[in-house]
Write a structure and sequence with these properties.
The protein has about 300 residues and is mainly α. It has helices spanning about 5-15, 25-50, 80-100, 100-105, 110-115, 120-140, 145-170, 210-230, 240-255, 275-290; strands at about 55-60, 65-70, 265, 270.
Length: about 300
């Protein structure tokens, strides 16, 4: 069963029909943003107190034309950065989804632009990351230590955001579930769901499809736990973000095997957009780990 709006959740829990037209997906994205921001603030505060990241500084111009430096602790810029990254992420997610479904876009462009479903997580990740880097550079903060600090936060936000996909039934589910492969000990709802009342109005035949958002939430939380445990690593700056890239790519490449996405052809490459991006992330992450997985000469962590 899906609950596209908060009113659906209230009715399921209490039986009351209350007019609460708030989209559950949007609410979970907001929760994901708040959780990721809190995680990032905590890590930046730790790194700032340890002296590994200095104050955020940017030049400002007064009304009389004079310039000066505005300076603050790095964790204090997180709220504004979170808003900027969130907006860019939504735009990127929609843009990449359109690029992946150009035929549908050409047939009904406005319907696709303003649809309540159809977002590419990788599109949001890429454009959101670019926006975050620009924001960080504007405040004259070092990019690599910031990338390390934000890696656990990004994974946590991803995991929580996928809960919104599951609750609303936004179409990010898997392919038709093969019940013959289901382990006997596993509950049916963990193997197949029909997502009745989903936000896009699609009817799914029984026994249903793989509930991939649930799997991604579980894997995302597990990856977050690993990244959080490794955040005090003794390796060079950028190593933890490389681990994040590797894990994010591997997680998505794995889940793509039971999802249905348009397959694209680029010469000899025959894969979905998500698979190609996932392989790229895995390659970048592996290269970063190999290059940065050495202790600094001082023997102190710089990440």
């Amino acid at each position: 069963m899906s609950y596209p709006y908060l009113s659906d959740v209230v009715k399921a829990l209490t039986g009351l029909d209350v007019a609460l037209p708030l989209a559950t997906f949007g609410l979970m994205v907001a929760c994901a943003t708040l959780a990721a921001a809190a995680c990032l603030r905590a890590e930046l505060r730790r790194l700032h107190l340890a002296g590994r990241i200095g104050n955020a500084r940017r030049r400002v111009t007064a009304k009389d034309g004079t310039t000066s430096w505005l300076e603050m602790a790095p964790q204090d810029i997180v709220p504004n950065m979170a808003v900027a990254v969130l907006v860019a992420g939504i735009v990127g997610a929609r843009l990449f989804h359109i690029l992946e479904h150009t035929d549908s876009f050409m047939a009904a462009p406005w319907d696709m632009v303003f649809s309540r479903s159809g977002l590419s997580i990788f599109g949001g990740l890429i454009l959101g990351t670019i926006t975050g880097v620009i924001f960080v550079r504007r405040w004259n903060l070092p990019a690599r230590p910031l990338c390390d600090a934000i890696a656990p936060a990004m994974m946590l936000g991803y995991a929580i955001g996928r809960i919104g996909c599951q609750i609303s039934g936004d179409g990010d589910w898997g392919s038709a579930a093969d019940m013959a492969l289901k382990p006997e000990w596993l509950p049916t709802w963990l193997w197949a769901q029909t997502y009745d009342n989903n936000v896009i109005g699609e009817l799914i035949a029984a026994p249903g499809v793989y509930p991939t958002p649930m799997y991604e939430t579980a894997m995302g939380l597990a990856c977050f736990g690993v990244l959080w445990a490794l955040r005090r690593h003794p390796f060079k700056t950028g190593w933890l973000f490389s681990v994040y890239l590797l894990m994010a790519g591997a997680e998505r490449l794995l889940i793509e095997q039971i999802r249905v996405n348009p397959v694209l052809d680029f010469g000899a490459i025959h894969a979905t957009q998500a698979e190609m991006i996932a392989v790229t992330l895995i390659g970048l992450g592996a290269a970063g780990i190999a290059m940065l997985g050495r202790r600094p000469k001082s023997g102190l962590a710089t990440g």
